[in-house]
Amino acid sequence: MKKKIISMLLAAAMVCTCFASCGSKADENSSKVDVSLTDVSSSKPIDISNLKLINDGTLTIGMEIGYPPFENKAEDGTPIGYDVDLAYAIGDKLGLQVNLIDTAFDIIFAGIGTNYDCVISAVTITDERQKEMLFSTPYIENYQAIVVKKGSDIKAASLNDLSGHSVMLQKGTTSQELLEDMIATGTVTNCTMAATEQILTCFTALDNGEYEIVLCDSTVAADYVTKNPDKYEIVYVDDQYPEQFGIAMGKEDTALQTAINEAMAQLKDEGFLEENNAKWFKD
Predict the structure, then answer these.
(1) Of 169, 277, 162, nearest in space to 219 by CA
(2) 152-179: per-residue pLDDT in tens?
(3) What are the helix (H) ranges across 98-152?
(4) pTM to 2 decimals?
(5) What is the Cα–Cα distance from 252 to 263, expressed in whole angstroms?
(6) How far apart (Å, rounded) are the C-alpha atoms in residues 193 and 202?
(7) Angstrom distance (rounded) from CA 40 to CA 103
(8) For residue 97, what are the CA distances in angstroms to 58, 60, 94, 229, 267?
(9) If you average pLDDT over every residue of the chain, what do you get?
(10) Which of 36, 85, 88, 84 is nearest to 64 (CA)?
């Protein structure tokens, strides 16, 4: 399933209030990654004189580097992925070095403003998160997806069909929030749910027959199925309720929000976002 770049990115300085979360595992990577896409240095300079950064001259970013295709590590340990390329492209636009801080997603938002300036880590914009932090304009449209082992007898016509099954998902995600709410309201019944820190662990548990279903972002589900067509299949995508990913930052950090939105608008106009989309997401 190919993900769509949100048309709203056209609004360069659009103010969109929001939330995100984080602690900090110190896997710092300040060496610049070659994004190998459109030149991102051709547009007019963006004013960053009002930015209050944790480290002068550097955009410090919280990221859970273990959520492909958005964030992952190459064999040599170098961070790779859609969000990694986006982070360095934004840094180029702002004339800043980029330092990635690898952090578990379920604690990621707590570190904003102390451990890093913002979070770029496949963060869904939600009403609750918007009460606590600001977001950039969105850059990805996403849905919830039900993934099973290839050949499974499980079928689904809605998320209600999680009833009666064992489900594995990642901590701190909208997948967890959604399923917990459905269980609490009785929409889903007789469902065994387990949450873990890494999405990879979810798919390992599915491989081993420990759980019947992985509930996760459709963007991530599509990546796993594309790379492992003989192991997994998507039996349902909740495309009636789209989610949007954005960059999260402190509630009062409007200067950074404006600068990042300007950078993203330029990246969209220059074709970088479309190229990054084609690079990391396949039909």
Answers:
(1) 277
(2) 999 999 999 999 999 999 999 999 999 9
(3) 127-130
(4) 0.83
(5) 19
(6) 11
(7) 27
(8) 4, 8, 9, 38, 17
(9) 87
(10) 84
